[in-house]
Fold:
Amino acid sequence: MSDFIPKHLPLHGVRVLDITVVWAGPHCTQLLAEWGAEVIRIEPLSPVQNSTRGAEYTITREQSEKSRGGPLNLQMSYPDYDPGPRPWNRTPAFNSHARNKRSMTCNIATPEGRKIFHDLVAVSDVIVENNVPETVERAGFTYPDAAVANPGIIVLRMPAYGLNGPYKNYRSFGTHMEGMTGHHYLRSYPDLDPSMTGDAFTVDAASGVIGAFAVLAALRHRRRTGEGQQIELAQAENFLSYLGEIVLDYTMNGRSPAPQGNHHPSHAPHGVYPCAGEERWIAIDIATDAQWQQLRAQMGEPDWAMDHRYDSTLGRWRHREEMDVLIGAWSRNQDRDALFQALTERGVIAGPVQDERDLYACPHLRERGFFETLTSPEAGTHAYPGLVFRMSSTENHLYRYPVRLGEDNEYVYNQLLDIPPEQEAALRARGQISVDYPGRAPAPV
Amino acid sequence: MQALTGIRVLDLTHLIAGPHCTKLLADFGADVIKIERPARGDPARHMGPFFHDVPHSEASALFLHLNTNKRSLTLDLKSTEGRQIALELAARSDVLVESFRPGTMERFGLGAEELRARNPKLVVTSISNFGQSGPYRDMAASEITLSAMGGPMNITGHRDHFPLKLGGNVVQYHAGANAAFATLAAIHAVEGGRPFGDHIDVSIYETQAGFRDRRVIALTAHAYTGDIGRRPETGVRPGSGVRPALDGYVNIFAGGPARFGRFLEMIGREDLKQDPRIQNPLLLPNHPELAEEIENSYLVWLMSHTKREAAAIAQHHQLLAAPVNEIKDVVEDPAFIDRGAFETIEHPFTGPLRYPSRPFILAASPRQPARRAPLLGEHTESILCDELGYAHEDLGRLGAMGVV
Structure:
């Protein structure tokens, strides 16, 4: 088992083969790795996993530099805007989930790759994948295939819409499942069309966490019965539960809600208001008359706010749109952080819209040790967002920097599988084993 | 036998995040006893939407959805007898989940240390807005302020408009999902032979700061570059993004040279496939007339298809695509219905209703059809008398004192 993962972590001893791509699957295995499982990413060298390791185009340092000072690009914000000789080890989309994991290279869609994969399955507990189902079926790493190599194996498959039905092979990013499940429409601006809403990827996050939960449920079943199994997590279906009361409002009342923006079904005012400066905003949630009176006092009790139409929750809710405009006209001259403090002291529920700099500076996250520093030989030393929950009797940290492509080839091929040297040399010659993508060997620095 | 059969959970949660955690445990077989305050019960019972829009403590969609497969016991935790009963239940439980403000459980005399001293293998899961420590520990918060402070709100929405929250209560649901995973991880250790349980501290704020919905990536990108995220100008990328169709909107992604070629075929402009100006579609904005010509052809094509047809045709061309559905579209979609994405649950107050069903399918240990959410205090008598051995006359005394 991995020497860098402490034995006291709860999932120590569980070995996970990770054939995940993009965001949802990698988030699932991230959680398993953070709590002690040995997660081995099996990464093909061809084709390049372009949305996973952000390497679709070769970006030069000059092209990357042009992004400096602009809005963050989630794939190509390399450390100091330098793609480096191996940009696939420096992309934030990948490096934000890849800590504590191992990486080996192997194209399991080839016959020799499949043989290696089956040898690994025989010594593993769990396989996690989130590819298009037909891709998985063509490559032959479905549950029946894996169970031949290891009858106790647990296989988590995370397709967008399931392993059957008309949408089975629908290709999707999170944003497409957001559309299908109604989330994109629901969270759109009330007075603008849904093309103005912008993407969200909440489905990816939900699938990752629920997938990790599902793996532990199946491990418990195996511990009691010896049985492995397939877990089918249709990501869009899973997300419908996150929208449960909205689904039920339709099935009980026939109501299919219009875009809600920042409005609440009963609280008002409830929204995000501009503050002084560029891109400074504060969220305010008024649930009671007393909170409204406190907000009104903070505004200095202007004439408009004393209008009796606003005295009750129902009155405020009916007039929420005009109130939002009036509150915004006042708040845009207020200092965001001072207002946050003042409203909090008054018992008004409020919170600044925090950007990345704000979060790194947050005194609460600092005191709780949320950010943890990792040093990668290829990405440098940085503070990364850390564990999202703690266990008081289980000391835990991030133990290894984001894994580099093929970093653990020697561990897997020589220690786990004991491949003879001549076979290893042949695999290397045929491009199965490497730390570089073919044709993308590092440029001289 | 379901995957979590045999796990006994004492559920002291209310509202959304905590009940979502215990719903996940209950739906896969754990025996969850939900403690509710006498008379009013879980505040979620009084939040809408309500069946036929008539407020009633047994008719809240939020409550009915989040509390399937649980049993309800009313108990006043502030009373001596209430605390005593809670301690008896905690002594025979594997897990206790609570979502009170930090410090409340200690005031009840039910602090994690005390509970764990009495039952060393107990896993206590605490869910709160900001966690059990730190300067914001006691600050009030809600769905929108937690999303604003922790989540990716600064990059959600349109550059020219205000930042958007996510839909409904998904921030709190997500914290509950994290708590369920954490709880099972601790159970895994105890059932594997570890002689002691744990106290899990879930902060909704931190589940947002560690949110895979862009937040962790943007934070990492900031650590790498010093720059900060902004909301995008949407709909400007050729061939990709949300656009109108005949009956609504559709989201199609045709990024990358190979997909863009298939996209041109789809909209009937294969004549442009060899055009040297579009070999890298990212550079198409450098050729505004051509970009406009493609966009016009695309809009004409879109106006001859419904959102669902457009998505299906795009998928046929191996593009990433989906309709921008309203809730009614997905709940009425035969593809979701036929797969069993919904299940009908009978309830004495609402009659049969369709709910979202299983979040995932365990082939060998399948989840059973859900039992409806409990009526307030529905299981008080059976739990106290049949399981804890209280006499029936005690029940009357406890009721008279307002304990149950």
About this structure: Chain B touches chain A through 152 residues (CB under 8 Å). Chain B has two domains: 8-214+338-400, 241-325.
